[in-house]
């Protein structure tokens, strides 16, 4: 996996054959690790899913404190394999007594997570600021 730094703002993970599409950008806001995700995580894109899973698990394992917001403002589509990645990420955060929230979901992504009743275990917020405020505070997942 190629990782290129983008100054103090986080990480840029090139994706695709020409390296122009980003997969995720990692930043810190108020002691919260924020993962800004890409447009689509289709179950058929095995390599992309493996890259984002590796990135999320690595960042969650080292996030101190273990507070993570997954910003899906750019994400238009998710598949079942990506939901599995989110679940593994959440499980690892929970094992470290941490917190995780999602934000900026498209109507499609929100409908998928709501239909699977995952909105009952992962707080979903309209904005990054709301999610960071909850995760950075004393609220639990």
Describe the structure.
With 141 residues, this protein is of the alpha/beta class. It has a single domain (4-136), classed as Transcription Regulator spoIIAA. 36% of the residues lie in helices and 26% in strands. It is built from four helices and eleven strands; from the N terminus they run βββββββαββαβαβα. It has helices at residues 46-62, 80-95, 107-115, 128-136; strands spanning 4-5, 11-12, 14-15, 21-22, 24-29, 32-37, 40-41, 67-71, 77-78, 99-103, 124-125. Strands 5-6-8-10-11 form a five-stranded mixed sheet, sandwiched between helices. A hairpin with a 5-residue loop joins β3 (14-15) and β4. α1 (46-62) runs parallel beside α2 (80-95). The protein is globular, with a radius of gyration of 14 Å. Residues 1-20 have low confidence and may be disordered.
- Average pLDDT, rounded to a whole number, is 81
The coarse silhouette is globular
Number of domains: 1
Q: What is the CATH superfamily label?
A: STAS domain
**Please, how many helices?**
4
Strand order of the largest sheet: 5-6-8-10-11
CATH topology: Transcription Regulator spoIIAA
Order of helices and strands: EEEEEEEHEEHEHEH
Give the distance, in angstroms, between the N- and C-terminal Cα atoms.
30 Å
Record field, number of beta strands: 11
CATH architecture term:
2-Layer Sandwich
The major beta sheet can be summarized as: 5 strands, mixed
- The CATH class, by name, is Alpha Beta
Class inferred from helices and paired strands: alpha/beta
Content of β-strand: 25-35%
Taking all Cα atoms into account, the compactness measure Rg is: 14 Å
What is the helical fraction, as a range of percent? Answer: 25-40%
